[in-house]
Amino acid sequence: MHTKPYIIEFPKIGNSQLGYISVAEQGNLPFEVKRIYWTYYTPERVERGGHSHYELEQILVAMAGKIIITVETLDGLIKEFILENPNQGLFIPKNTWRTMKYTHNAVQMCIASSVYDEKDYIRDYKQFKAIQK
Ligand code: TYD
Asked: Which long-range CB contacts under 8 A does 116-121 form with residues at least 24 apart?
């Protein structure tokens, strides 16, 4: 099991003349996929996220546009990642606080290890800091 966020490079098939295909499939993902959803039309002034998860693991992909993601892991490490290539994803492990900002044209795909469950969220930053100790 991975405990650190990291960039996943998906295969990129094709060329600039014809365009590209990228693939996410069971062989190149760090968990079994239960759900895929996507977010879009997020105004640039809006910061999304602001939560961690007890169990959920996710991979975010900028299918279009640019996403700036700040993550804080259980060991207190804070890191910023920029997604702007559709052949890259960011793996976010469980117990990781995340915030995201988007360009107006960004379409974010989220590949998730579980179905949606509000009980799996920590939405209070103080509560997240408390589990770091
Ligand atoms: P949230 O996971 O906080 O989104 P983000 O991390 O992109 O900011 O979810 C935002 C709202 O949408 C929250 O009220 C929960 C709800 N929601 C669902 O109803 N179903 C879902 O599958 C997801 C992911 C969120």
From this structure: 116/35, 117/56, 120/53, 120/54, 120/55, 120/56, 121/51, 121/52, 121/53
Please state the rounded mean pLDDT for residues 60-81.
Answer: 97
Q: Decide if pLDDT at 96 tops 80.
A: yes
Residue listed under structure tokens 């996943």: 8
In the predicted model, is pLDDT for residue 123 greater than 80? Answer: yes
Q: Is 39 in the pocket of ligand 1 (CB under 6 A)?
A: yes
pTM passes above 0.85: yes
Active site residue 51: yes
Out of 39, 47, 51, give the residue to mutate to test ligand 1, the one with the largest number of ligand atoms within 8 Å of its CB: 51
Q: What are phi and psi of 83, to 5 degrees?
A: -110, 125
| pLDDT reading at 49 higher than 90 | yes
